[in-house]
Amino acid sequence: MRSLLLLAAIGLAAAEDGLSGWLRYAPIKGAKGCHSKLPSAILTLNATEGSPVYTAGQELSQGISGIFGKELELNAAETRHGNGRDTTATVGTVHAYVDSNPDAAARLPELVDDGFYLDVSRGKVLILGQNERGALYGAFHYLSVLAQGNCSDFTLTSNPDAPIRWVNQWDNMQDGGTHGSVERGYGGDSIFFWDGKVRDDLTRAAQYARLLASIGLNAVVANNVNADAKTLTPENMDGLARIADVFRPYGVQLGVSLNFAAPETLGGLSSFDPLDETVINWWQGITDALYKRIPDMAGYLVKANSEGQPGPMTYNRTLAEGANMFAHTLKPYGGIILFRAFVYDHRTLNQTLDWKADRANAAGNYFDGLDDKFEDNVVIQIKNGPIDFQVREPVSPLFSHLVKTGAAIELQVSQEYLGQQAHLVYLAPMWKEILDFDFRVDGKPSRTSDIVGGKRFPRKLGGYAGVVNVGTNTTWLGSHLAMSNLYAYGRLAWDPSATSEGILQEWTKLTFSDDKKVLDVITKLSMESWPAYENYSGNLGIQTLTDILLGHYGPNPASQDGNPWGQWTRADADTIGMDRTVWNGTGFSGQYPPEIAAMYEDVATTPDNLLLWFHHVPYTQVLKSGKTVIQHFYDAHYAGSATAQTFPELWKTLKGRIDDERYEHVLYRLVYQAGHSLVWRDSVNTFYFNKSGIADTGGRVGNHPYRIEAEDMTLAGGYRRYDVSPFEAASGARCIVTADNSTTGTASTVLRDVKTGKYDVAVNYYDMALGNATWELYVGCKRVGRWKGDLEYNLGRAPSPYIDGQTASRVTFRGVKIKKGSTLKIVGRPDGLEPAPVDYISILPEGIVD
Ligand code: GCW
């Protein structure tokens, strides 16, 4: 402890791997000054070992010891300060407290489930929860205030905005599921499952529950919504019970994803029709068996009739009939079912033949007429947008249709379409826009957050489901900075009125330090990150122009169209955008209440940032900003990637202010992001330049005076030219690759037109999975640098074996001395399936990036 304090005092933090997230309880400056304001002992009321109140006591003792170096007595009989003052931290439920202090009842505030009351007064601390979980939340809140350096007195009553504050992990039971063992996971393997079973060692699961409890999240569905029926074998149910056991001390309940066809595939029945008596009985048996093992199970999550998953519609039953079957089995146990609104058919939509076909309409259509048909323990879980977690979507209109049925909003902490945790994208500002959106139902204020919080339409159940992809990586999400998204998700689910910046600053203080510089830099980076990503990945509501068929990571605008997935842009030589108007298009805008429908129906009143979501317009359409659509594309892509270039430079100003381990880890990613943002910029701009034939008024697109195309160099040894697909993923549409995986290739050129001086030399290459090629860069006889194609080990983003926008990467060597007329040479050594591909080399005068 002393050495830690010493390190803190001299401003250096010990190396950290991120495992404790924002719950580091690290020593703070001025800790000694707080001692007299801290409790000396902890009293836990009615706490049995393993209960949340017991955990609260442990956390308080551990936290105050870590932050202040003060050891507290746990459950001592009498604790008075020298001067007779009571300095006990009492923690428990309101009920337990009032039992021993009946007079207190009148002065305690009203709490709802999970709410807490805190009263901190000169070392005497009262932490009361409406239930045990609430008491633990109160303890975490008190510790968070302390860890942020505030030991003043205060009182606080805090109630959650909504009862459902869940996490959905998309973890596969079997390694090698569709996308590895966490679907859309970029932070390692599942912490819950391995080889078709629940892991023996659930240490990480317990640590995860601790993090989630500290931000008020109360349940986790651990298995993927693309559920494996085998989750429900007796052995696996025993395993699930073990997960629930390690969650319980943190007040986190377990939920289970179900596969609708399980009665047939696992149960051996001849049907999974939700109205069939044998099917109903089978599910009742499963529910009974689960509750026998997990009496406090939260309930179920079901993805049905979506993306190939079975569901009630297979038997011409309604979604309500399907959901209610589970609801009935859960009712005796007080369980609930979250039934997903993400229902659509990815096989039959036809872009060419049907101008009115629209995946965005699916949820509204499928749930039409069902609002009064669901049992009261069914909650419809609706993704924030009508398509799928794109960089910008309007809010799903379904929120305004369900008046009688409980609704939960599904937000994605996993950055599936938003840079996969290899790009920094702080999501709270996006979520805030969504939660604050006003649907104007019946002409009255009707914000999304008030709908899911049960305030706009009186309903007992509703709330939040966050798709999270933590994995075995010690950083949890594969990136330290991405953890601000998990933190923000929890904070907003508790209190959607919290501000993005406020949440971020809290998180930064807890995760790194309260050093003003650190706060300023992380705030600037994070707050600029979503706008920057939107600028370089998809503008004006066209969606993330990523490869939707492979990986969902790098640029590939063409992949959106011409397939039944329905994420269309309908871009042709002259026009772009989806016509979703009622008068001429798919009719989607008519799914909103009248005021909003009218706004989106008309190009003139549709906000620029959703123009192409709702309208099909010429590239020359003039925006409210005065620019044309195409020029906006060009400019935005340049602006977004220019912002990303500032990220590593800003981060470097923090050297020495945070521990080296996390400093280097973050820097590596920000450097990568800066490079990949250029890939995005050039791919998207080249693609639309090629399609529209309209030049960039700034003269930048297609004009790269500092670049040497690898295909124009003199090739020797194994290197040969290669046409890249999609063409826009390579500068000049081509790159070079070695002919096979055993011959070294050499590409060289004489720098006739480069003046003698110092330059930054950037090399764009492709780092594919399934091989670790090596490249060497020479100027004259001097080796400037050597690097390996090993990003797949360091970035968790979807691995790709192709030469495309997912694998295109950049390495930059700074301040390289070059003499006019010297020879520039790249030597590429292939490895495995990676043929040492090179796209181009940029010789950049100081201050220029291209
Ligand atoms: O966005 C798509 C994802 C799938 C996911 C699906 C869903 C779990 O690409 O990986 O499946 O959404 O939300 O069900």
TrEMBL record:
Enzyme active site: 307, 388, 416
Which reaction(s) does the protein catalyse, per the Swiss-Prot or TrEMBL entry?
an alpha-D-glucuronoside + H2O = D-glucuronate + an alcohol
| Cleavable signal peptide | 1-15
EC identifiers of the protein:
3.2.1.139
Report the locations given in the UniProt record.
Secreted
Q: What Gene3D superfamilies does UniProt report for this protein, alphabetically? A: Alpha-glucuronidase, C-terminal domain, Chitobiase/beta-hexosaminidase domain 2-like, Glycosidases
- Tell me a GO cellular component: extracellular region
Q: Which gene encodes it?
A: aguA
Keyword DNA-binding listed: no
Q: What sequence ranges are listed for the domain Glycosyl hydrolase family 67 catalytic?
A: 150-476
Q: Name one Pfam family in it.
A: Glyco_hydro_67M
Keyword Signal belongs to the record = yes
Its recorded name reads Alpha-glucuronidase
Q: What does this protein do?
A: Alpha-glucuronidase involved in the hydrolysis of xylan, a major structural heterogeneous polysaccharide found in plant biomass representing the second most abundant polysaccharide in the biosphere, after cellulose. Releases 4-O-methylglucuronic acid from xylan.
Q: Which residues form a coiled coil?
A: none
Q: Which GO terms describe its molecular function?
A: alpha-glucuronidase activity
The Alpha glucuronidase N-terminal domain sits at: 21-142
Residues of the Glycosyl hydrolase family 67 C-terminal domain: 478-700
Instruction: Provide a GO biological process annotation.
Output: xylan catabolic process
The family assignment reads: Belongs to the glycosyl hydrolase 67 family.
- What is the enzyme's class at the highest EC level? hydrolase
